[in-house]
Write a structure and sequence with these properties.
It contains 5 helices and no strands. By secondary structure, it is an all-alpha fold.
Length: about 130
């Protein structure tokens, strides 16, 4: 394992390190979403104030405006995940400059797509919740 690591180029070592770290963070995030830990903060509120708390919490979030915020912690992590893995995979296939451009463009594309997709899901959930209250 050490021989393999030392046989990598410096750029590969850096990109692989960042890619593995961002992969670990994404896996933890997926596990937390699946276990629904985003609703844990509801435990600290009284039941009659829960709806008011939800309104305040949603107005403070990234998606409270009618446009998605493209630079969030999650989108930066997704950018690092995609761009570093792409950079690592393309090491011996294309030149260094092409590696940088392709990995950067692909990382930005996926991060922006994620932000837009996340906004659409949030809007759908809010509409569905609004329709249920009627």
């Amino acid at each position: 394992m050490i021989k393999w690591w030392l046989s990598l180029l410096f750029e590969q070592q850096v990109s692989l390190s960042i890619a593995l770290a961002s992969t670990l963070v994404l896996i933890v995030q997926i596990v937390l979403v699946l276990l629904n830990f985003y609703g844990v903060d509801r435990l600290n509120t009284e039941s009659d104030n829960l709806e008011q708390y939800e309104i305040i919490a949603n107005c403070d979030s990234d998606m409270s405006q009618n446009k998605p915020k493209l630079i969030t912690v999650v989108s930066i992590n997704i950018f690092l995940f995609v761009s570093c893995w792409t950079f690592f995979i393309l090491t011996y296939k294309v030149s260094f400059l092409k590696q940088l451009v392709i990995s950067f463009v692909l990382g930005v594309f996926v991060a922006v797509t994620y932000s837009i997709f996340r906004k659409l899901i949030k809007q759908y959930a809010q509409r569905k919740k609004f329709d249920q209250k009627k």
